[in-house]
């Protein structure tokens, strides 16, 4: 059940007022802060409130043969994350031949429930968004540029 468009627009206005660049995309919004881009989607909760889903595309791709090592590394990284998780999504690339290895995109994801769209809850969303992006990006960069971790 999707939140009424005016709720998403209220969220977008609040994020813009806090200094973030926000633009509407299909059924959600794209929030930009510097080089980072987080997709934001809002759904009405049948118990009241709004469920906000955040997706951070990390521009990392993994081929099927590297999955065992990657999954172990992601599991370890996820244990240290407070504001989101790393997930793998299959990349649907019709341009590749049938014999091409299956490829997965590494994404950061988070979900936050807001009891309403009052100032306090919108501030909590801004803080969650900021910490989610920073925490996931830092964990991945530290792992990729450190001596051990993910190898794709």
UniProtKB/TrEMBL annotation:
Keywords: Coiled coil. The keyword Coiled coil applies. Residues 115-142 form a coiled coil. It comes from the Bacteria. This is YbjN domain-containing protein.
